[in-house]
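Work Package 3 (structural annotation) set out to generate three-dimensional models for the target panel prioritized at the project kickoff. During this period the team completed the workflow that converts sequence records into discrete structure tokens, so that structures can be stored uniformly alongside our sequence database. As a representative example, we reproduce one entry of 337 residues exactly as it appears in the project archive.
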Amino acid sequence: MATYNWDEIFAVTTKYLDDKIPEIFTQTTPLMNEIMKNKQYVDGGNRLAVALDFKPMGNIGYITGTSADLIDISTQQNLTPAELDWKYIQTGFSVTLQDLNTTADSKHAIASLVSQKAKNSLASTKQFIAAALYGSAVDNPKALNGFGDIFAASGVSYAGLLDTDLGEDASGDSVWLPQYNTTDTVVDYKTIEPMITKLKTKANFSGVGNKLDFMVSKAAVLSAFKQAQQTQQRFLAAKNLQAGFDGLEVDGITWYADEFCGGAGSTYDLYLISSNSIKFMYKYGFDGKNSPQDVSGLRIPNQPIMTHQRFITGNLFCVDRRVNGKFSALNPTAVRS
């Protein structure tokens, strides 16, 4: 086989992959698209830490405005630390000696081989990220802390805090716990409206700019709702259609289908999400901040393999669980009696 400038071939053909990997996070789902618009760079540290401010200030109140007032200027600790582990994502591909041996002996053919490997890697990464949104570090400690952790039940710690650690809000609900509906089965507006209203109210009064803006389920649940609401269907806002996403708008909330969402048989999930409450925090992999371990065209010393590798470090972090909700018993075939 002729000798080629491998650095040049890898540089040209893998630029497509390097440019597209960050975009994959925004193109996977409408929700990830919104989350990644506000991703946050974190300059290292042993863990990802967020200071939660849910405790009311104790030195707020009425005064007379006269010299009789004694102003409370005592120091108060209102911030509660929440912490999650860094997670490490590896993407890339390899070209083996066998790959080269079965490829035509021309620069174009070799470049085509490397390019196709890069595109296959990109497709796999998209599937990986889409599934990771629903994952849990309980099942796999290396995984992102996805919905499996964010929507963990009462009594299960999230980010080092139990739902009892931050107290209750004015309505008696735990501040550090999503809303749950584990009993309703019929997929219609009557079922989901009470939670929509409750979450919108909590988001409006959270004081941190939260807005209930996404709902996600498997296609079977979305289809059942469409059929139940045939005469009242609403369509997506132009910004979502232009981004290539499809779905339905319900009370100003974008509802889209995602087959990685939980559900099978007669029991399906439906998530209601305030996207601003979920952050993607990272150090490497975005906005030109590449990992020092990224390599392209590296020959593995003890194997007949050349490899291209990129690394992403970061994690999903829900900073306000109370403004999100989950239905976990919906049945697309159930009807209201």
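Confidence is low (pLDDT under 50) at residues 238-245.
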